[in-house]
Amino acid sequence: MKKTLSVFLLFLSHSVFALDLAKYPTELTSGEGVNVVIAPTTDNKQALVKVTGVNHEIDGVVFLTEINKQGDDQRLKYTFDGSKRSLIYIANNYGCCSYALYLPDTKDGIYLGKKDEAKADTVQAISALYDQQLKQGVQEKLAMFNREKHLAYQKNKIQEADDNVVKQCGTEMPTKVDWNKISDSDLGTYAIAAYCAQVSSKVADQCAAKPAFKETAKDFKAISCDFTDELKLRLNDQVLNFKTAPKAPNQGQFIEAYLNNM
To answer: Signal sequence: where (predicted)?
Structure first.
């Protein structure tokens, strides 16, 4: 609730104070249909950015970004899915400049070149669109943490690990997580599946390496995973109860040692 309120107030402040934009924008293109317009403020501390030509929900949305300077380079940052991210990276190479666009949840940038001509009326158009979308709550919606999307991704990764147990061990052993106990902060910060799927992954490895372990695996009916501040693994009523913690080191070795002693 506190995060929701802070994001709302952030957008409200943007709508209250008019932006003093520079007369001419920077217009970029990939040469393959991706286009970007950057309209900086006169003090070069912020910029409106619109990306088009991408198969992504940010397409056509105007974001107010912060210009973060790192030496001669710049990162244009905005809030998406509950976290601050770089949208455009500007590298000052031998005079200026190379540009890269980073779409959310992608590692590789899309490299862009500067168009020959920038039109002043583009600034008015992008500013008007920004105000319109701001009133509609477009940017605010995209800035909010998307819990359902993160849950679906993490559940899918855990299911993949559980399916591998069936493949390697010939028995089902579903990993159960009480997702209601996982906060938005932890879900957005940590790869929950990478922690909670460790037991099923190690069980599958044991079955693949030691066929005799398949008989042992048949005694495990499920895996229960708690995301906590301690590291523990115990077998209780045919359920492997696993407590995982982000700061605990060598978790894979810990699980493997426990299974080897069974």
So the answer is: 1-18
